[in-house]
Amino acid sequence: MKQEPTRATTLNRAKPYQLVLFPLNNGATNVYYVLILTYIATFGNVVLGLGMVFASFMVTGMRVFDAITDPIIGALMDRTNGKFGKFRPFMVIGSATMAVSVILLYVFTPFIPENMMWLRYVAFVLLYAVWVIGYTFQTSVTRAAQAVLTDDPKQRPLFTIFNTVGSLAGMGVMQFIGPILAGDTIFGDYNQSWFAAMTPIGIIVSVALTILAIIGIWEKDQPKYFGLGAAKSEKVKISQYLAIIRSNKPLQRLMIAGGGCKLALSIATNMTVLAMLYSCMMGNYDVLYLPMMVLGYVCAVPFFLLTVRTSQKHGQRASLMRYVGVALACYVVVLVLLILWNPENAAFQLSLYSDSGITINLYTILFMVFFGVGYGAYYATADMPIPMVADCADYETYRTGSFVPGIMGTLFSLVDKLVSSLSATVVGIAVSFIGLETLPTKATPYTEGMNVVVIVLFCVIPMIAWALTLWSMKGYSLTGERMKEIRAVNACRRAAIADGMSVEKAMETWQTIDQVPEEFR
Fold first, then answer.
1. Which of 40, 46, 143, 456 could form a cystine bridge with 412, CB 3.0-4.6 A?
2. What distance in Å separates the CA atoms of residue 113 and residue 103, rounded to the nearest whole number?
3. Residue 464, Cβ neighbours under 10 Å: how many?
């Protein structure tokens, strides 16, 4: 006779302040997404005088190093369960490591004499490698700890909204302050003084967000919220992670979707690409950049609300596919508009205002409408795969009984860094094709063929990435209905284990939704 659990456990729900504060961890790391991954190639090339191709390629080449460190850090996280919890130590260590490495990189390496260029190359690579380790420590927690924060299907989609608030508190602040400080009357065009000024600003913002995120996860960072509630930490060997990846098909597809979303965002918002578009092509970076950025953020607001509502009603897969599709459709029109750009005809250029007053035209209105809607849609979905990582972690617990959020978090950290750094390499290669030896800035004059580079980077590659995301999600099995079944089975097993049943017996007894008592459904 099958032993039934004597008590049902309710959903693990997060308190409102926890839902608001913990996603700030992503904002803390996104500070460095802007400070490092957006500007490091420019810093290496323009400030240190390193070769443009080297500075761009090195950022991607460091992924070989990541391939070694990421699974090690994931294994450490899965094995960690001390007085300070499983996740908080990695947040603290990661934040401190990034702060120190960035100070040494951006503030001190420019003082290495030019006649010791070899030392600049060495310091650049080593300090970036140290930063990568710190970034992995902290950013993987954002993905991994989702599984303990909440398993309520009504709450998990809310992470996307609060994550965006955190990102705006981190990434948004840096994106707005950066161009202002780069003004001719302040520090100038992304020079040594600019990097020295931006570094302490970024560190202060990131540390503050990290402290708030630690407060948000504090109560949940304890064994009773880990998987099936087992007190001991997982002793999964690194070699076993390959088996987990091979068997967890939804995780594979989510990695592709997450990579596609991240690649589109990384390249379409790359500062070099935007400088070529708004300055080199359209001729007025100072007038166009901030208004277009504000437009994108404003348009993102209704899409965040729509994505949450769709996720709660139909599941996160359906929401991601719907709004990535909207972005893809809008960028078809943006692509056509950029193809129609004519430097000799003001009617086919972006124009908002000048000293003589408002100069907006039909071309600009169409661009603003379709760019705004498209940007809003893809910005709202860019981080949607993060809460979906928790679904994959729940599925792994359902499938094997193991709670291994560390490997889930570090896999997505690896994809995040790979794609983000790949964007720098792609941009560097594309720019080299038109004969430039340095990455363009707002002071760079237009070069023949630059419009083609912008079209490819700003539209074509993101559109291919979105198409890849839609393809991967088409076969993603963790629909809203499927996740309800998985949570019910896991909850039943957790209750039985709490009553004294072994993990193995609970796994064997309850495997499908029809075997689960009604109170768990």
1. 143
2. 18
3. 15
